Amino acid sequence: MSSYDYLKISQTIGLPPKAYGVEFSKDSKYAYVETINAGENIILQYNTAKIDDIQEVHISNKGESYMQLAKDGNIYVTSEGYLSKVTPPKSSDETVASFFENTIDLNGKKSILGMPNFIQSYFRTRILSENGCLDTKTLFEIDTYATITAAEWDFGDGTPISKEIKSEHTYTSAGNYAVSCTITVNSREIKLYKNIEIYTPSAYAIGFNEIIQCDIDNDGTDFFNLTVVEDKITPFKLIKWNHLSQKLY
């Protein structure tokens, strides 16, 4: 959504609705707008990349509510003596946020004037990395709006700390690792965490190898018995099967 786009709040029946609260998802892909119309409180989801993509998240009759993005990526909504929760889509398979009512009990208290404000760009800060493979370099970097002046990486395997802002690391043992990074932004230290899994080569062996087999009747199809070549496709090898000679080489 460019700076010239705007959200259109409309409803076909009844009086024009009033937009009461607005909040963006952590990645700014979605905007959430609370509208009040004819006694109904409606939370709408707008796709900022496609402004006409509008989804209805929740309808209630509890009156005006406040919305606030939190560090966990959820948007919390005041609901009398509770906080409800909006969880934005986390994958391309999800098209609309999930709503969870009364997830936090305020223990008899009420939120009347809203919730604390935050510098939301800090919520964007995260470690970017993917699960990797044994004895292969794994890339680690920080995604943030702010300028990072220093970084200290602990890769969770007992190896020395890395002070590269964008770092690579090679794991020598398969398993799960708790990676942490302490970054300095505007003279303030922020500690980030991410769990990754390192696999042994055999977990990927079949996908990275090619088995070639002769098609003796040239009909474009044939059968493969992978149990015959199990010991040859782990670790990585190029295997050719000669259907005529019945030999692997």
Structure description:
The structure is a single chain. The protein folds into 3 domains: about 20-115; about 125-200, Sandwich (Immunoglobulin-like); about 205-249, no CATH class. Helix content is about 0%, strand content about 45%. The protein has one helix at about 120-125, and strands at about 20-25, 30-35, 40-45, 50-60, 65-70, 75-80, 80-85, 100-105, 125-130, 130-135, 135-145, 150-155, 165-170, 175-185, 190-200, 210-215, 240, 245-249. The strands form 5 sheets. The protein has a 4-stranded antiparallel β-sheet, with no helix packed on it. A 4-stranded antiparallel β-sheet has the order 5-6-7-8, with no helix packed on it. Strand 5 and strand 6 (about 75-80) form a beta hairpin.
Helices and strands in order:
Blueprint: E1 18-24, E2 30-37, E3 40-47, E4 50-60, E5 67-69, E6 75-79, E7 82-87, E8 98-105, H1 121-124, E9 126-128, E10 132-133, E11 137-143, E12 148-154, E13 167-170, E14 175-185, E15 188-199, E16 211-213, E17 239-242, E18 247-248
Parallel strand pairs: 10-15, 16-17
Antiparallel strand pairs: 1-2, 2-3, 3-4, 5-6, 6-7, 7-8, 9-11, 11-13, 12-14, 14-15, 17-18
Task: Describe the structure concisely.
The chain is mainly β. The protein is 2% helix and 45% strand. The strands form 5 sheets. A 4-stranded antiparallel beta sheet has the order 1-2-3-4, with no helix packed on it. A 4-stranded antiparallel beta sheet has the order 5-6-7-8, with no helix packed on it.
